[in-house]
Fold these 3 entries.
Entry 1:
Amino acid sequence: DTAVSQTPKYLVTQMGNDKSIKCEQNLGHDTMYWYKQDSKKFLKIMFSYNNKELIINETVPNRFSPKSPDKAHLNLHINSLELGDSAVYFCASSQGAGFYGYTFGSGTRLTVV
Amino acid sequence: GDSVTQMEGPVTLSEEAFLTINCTYTATGYPSLFWYVQYPGEGLQLLLKATKADDKGSNKGFEATYRKETTSFHLEKGSVQVSDSAVYFCALSIPQGGSEKLVFGKGTKLTVNP
């Protein structure tokens, strides 16, 4: 059983399109996250949700909108895709605050052409 | 603000060599510290962690000790294997409103040759 699963694994799309990435965790964790990894492997937090409530919203363009229908799911919708959005997006979950670390999904490689 | 600095890579070693990857941090308060590993084409996996000063995290032959006086959490392994080739990330955890925010270093790519 995959603990944190993301779909799709690869996404190639044209500039200006709208796309979604889905994430599900079966660990019973209360908190889920989206991170962006750029071409130099740098990881930066985008959002976190705790039990469906938005907790962290870093300086992300408002073209990015997370949605959490329940605590096991956190989806990422991106409007009007730009070339600079090309990256690997990782979903993660954690058990609580401060001591546990994250369990990561395997990533979605988004390529905007 | 809170940040993590880790040694620039890439690091290339021969099998059975000793590994050190340096990591220092800046944080207000007392964060938990982590090392994550990312194998090619995969997500990040938790390698080890330490939650307070002088704690030593260890896993798969890797070790790191939380040093508050030097704000460091260096990763070490006595004898690396080809299968250890990966990118290693140091991170600190900041509790934030019921969740935790992980701040990562830039990653260090390790290649181990037979």
Entry 2:
Amino acid sequence: AQSVTQLGSHVSVSEGALVLLRCNYSSSVPPYLFWYVQYPNQGLQLLLKYTSAATLVKGINGFEAEFKKSETSFHLTKPSAHMSDAAEYFCAVSHGSGNTGKLIFGQGTTLQVKP
Amino acid sequence: DAGVTQSPTHLIKTRGQQVTLRCSPKSGHDTVSWYQQALGQGPQFIFQYYEEEERQRGNFPDRFSGHQFPNYSSELNVNALLLGDSALYLCASSLRSGGAGGYTFGSGTRLTVV
């Protein structure tokens, strides 16, 4: 069975500091992996996705993630945090293809950005 | 180009009642999935519809049912509401043949059961 674990339910960084949000997955087949962001009272917005092409994936708003099969990890990073990055972040693995398989989400990580 | 539209945005129901939530997928998308997101949790997959049929189902009781119409829009129905059904219900659409383009999510319907 597939699963996702996000390490740290709450991460706090200073504006301009490195953002690192951790995600580990479990999958018996090559996974499709996603990072989504959710602002208060809104739906989910796709930040980036891994679909077995390049292991370093660049997304929107300066975020990127690296797929490491040996570590079963897909951590999300951003070199310099901005106040507008404060939100809830979800890592997800797809059971099947990226368009038809159900998404299995982690519990989420709340990112706080301090001025 | 409109994204995924969900209605209503908020809803308050009483235990035991029935509720219907609606979703219009992004233009060009043909597959609709529904997720339940309890407060402080990640979304959980309810089911997915394609060609007006339920194709996949998560671990939800039969009280949860759905429908997809010929124009690809979808409804989620929940019968005999429980307090635990209070959550944000998210609709996501995709194009089944679109490679790994991924899903587009709506802003959700906030259901409160009292």
Entry 3:
Amino acid sequence: DTGVSQDPRHKITKRGQNVTFRCDPISEHNRLYWYRQTLGQGPEFLTYFQNEAQLEKSRLLSDRFSAERPKGSFSTLEIQRTEQGDSAMYLCASSLAQGNEQYFGPGTRLTVT
Amino acid sequence: GESVGLHLPTLSVQEGDNSIINCAYSNSASDYFIWYKQESGKGPQFIIDIRSNMDKRQGQRVTVLLNKTVKHLSLQIAATQPGDSAVYFCAENYNAGNMLTFGGGTRLMVKP
């Protein structure tokens, strides 16, 4: 257990529905990252927060995706109008500072039917 | 584009032997590298990291070697145990950026 928690661990939804995932980072970490991982591949960066500010977004993050970190602590990732291609493991990571090791949570596995 | 990759998708070793997992990177600006271990159904677990001003770093039973001349990174696991069975990813961070770029992973299988 790295100290990063994610909820839910699994989510099955029908195409077109909205889903929201939550990440609670290690408490003293001010940096929070979202990644997406498909089967057999390494994680791919989606977005990054420093405190409450979202400072970087990948081109993978389409308009249907939105992430927030309102109080600089936990973060949510929402996917609107889900598509089957959104099926993946969504991983959250946190770090103390830039260039330091990122600790990952257990992930939320999303299946879109 | 520039990427981080791995030479071997699957590595099978006998329990007690040493394991070596290799990784090639192409971005000469990369200045920080991490090895992660990922077990089925779990998130990546940090193993060891190394910065570009070093060529070797040792942890408990693990050693990471960095060869900047040929842009090569390796993870050595001593006395491999069944609990080491997992997928191993190398990741790079460059220009003090905020994202990690991961390779495709190597599956390590330890035979008893």
